[in-house]
Amino acid sequence: MSSTRTRTRSVGGALAVAASLTLVLTACSGGSSGGSGDSSGGGDAGDAIDTSTASGDIDYWLWDSNQLPAYQQCADDFHAANPDVTVNITQYSWDDYWTNVTNGFVAGTAPDVFTDHLSKYPEFVSQGQLLPLDATLEADGVDTGSFQEGLADLWVGQDGLRYGLPKDFDTVAIFYNSALLADAGVDPAELQNLEWNPDDGGTYEKLIAHLTVDGKGVRGDEPGFDKDDVAVYGLGLDGGSGAGNGQTQWSMYSGTTGWTVTDKNPWGTHYNYDKPEFQSTIAWMRSLIEKGYMPSLEAVTGQSSADIFGAGKYAMITNGSWMINQMFGYDGVETGLAPTPVGPDGKRASMYNGLADSVWAGSDNKAAAVKWVEYLGSAACQDVVGASGVVFPAIPSGTDAAKAAFEAKGIDVTPFLQHVEDGTTFLFPITDHAAEITGIMQPAVDAVFTGDAEPDSLTSANDQVNALFN
């Protein structure tokens, strides 16, 4: 019988977050039941927590149901090695997850440890919600240099303190429908050497046009193509415009133009949405919609791009490595992978996003919580996660295990990993004011995609974003 417990939930209509979140948090305490390893007096920036006598129950939350079995195995293995500590795992859907995390901060019911995201943690740090880990990791001899290059640096705040240990990473590649390529007379090998530019789209746009088919069977590069009656789009659009980061929509193109989202990353204080390299990339994206080669924003909003791909409506779509199993899991669809195109700078590009596990500052069992985070960041756990073949763990041995697991399923994941091997990744933008920036850039980029605004309107949006830092 397992000594750890797993709960899966999808809860809506949770307690509303108070506007004065930071003030409320100062009065909150909570978490799971503490044990003899509880360190209520530790956890400040300079204080190491004694994890050697950790005991009691802790709560751990994550959002990806596909990873739940692997982390349950990690929890069981951790308990076997530390029988005085029990890890209770709860999985929520993405939207409910963040609602419940933030509500938990207010109510004092947040988990001791939770999967954290780069778009969320700067705000959590500013509100004092995360426990600095540096002193304890040093005391316990944890090597933060054991992860894939650059991942550990993402979780060091502007104060120089560490607020998470990397758990996995993701990059972007092209998923394609093999049958639709064959129908078009396209050899998949042709996708290995595609070139893109924002002016005419290069050989990449030529392929997209050829793979697009209207309701009468006319291709996008043939006379008589009806852009208002498209049966198969050459390139799908992943659920929206991508707002200000475009991770799966356009970042793999803009990243090859010499453009950067911010003046520095992480912790930049000036955004660059006014630059011609960015605006021309967004203009190119809109041109695909106008030509009928890519679906409109209205057509994809609220829809599953993966399911549309699985229905045979997209010949290709760019998406993240976390989607591998779903994209290869559709009955009757033979899916393939190809690298993103080479851009104006002569290289490919992919946004490099990494998740981590963080400890809630309000946990009443910090010793067990940090000990669990240390285990989550170790090869002992990440090799297990890698062997499950769902994501790419942050430790190289875990990454290798994941590659082997995917290969055992007949999936060559080289198009994702070659970005790491070739050094063509760039970091997910990490700054303050993430929520406010999304609130500005989402409607601004949406308006360009729908034709309600011109690309140069993004300069005004950029001014609004940069005003947040003044």
Automatic annotation (TrEMBL):
It comes from the Bacteria. PANTHER family: MALTOSE-BINDING PERIPLASMIC PROTEIN, MALTOSE_MALTODEXTRIN-BINDING PERIPLASMIC PROTEIN. This is Sugar ABC transporter substrate-binding protein. It holds the Pfam family SBP_bac_1. PROSITE patterns: PROKAR_LIPOPROTEIN (PS51257). GO terms for molecular function: maltose binding. CDD domains: PBP2_TMBP_like. InterPro entries: SBP. Belongs to the bacterial solute-binding protein 1 family. Keywords: Signal, Transport. It comes from Miniimonas arenae. Residues 1-29 form the signal peptide. GO terms for cellular component: ATP-binding cassette (ABC) transporter complex, substrate-binding subunit-containing. GO terms for biological process: maltodextrin transmembrane transport; maltose transport.
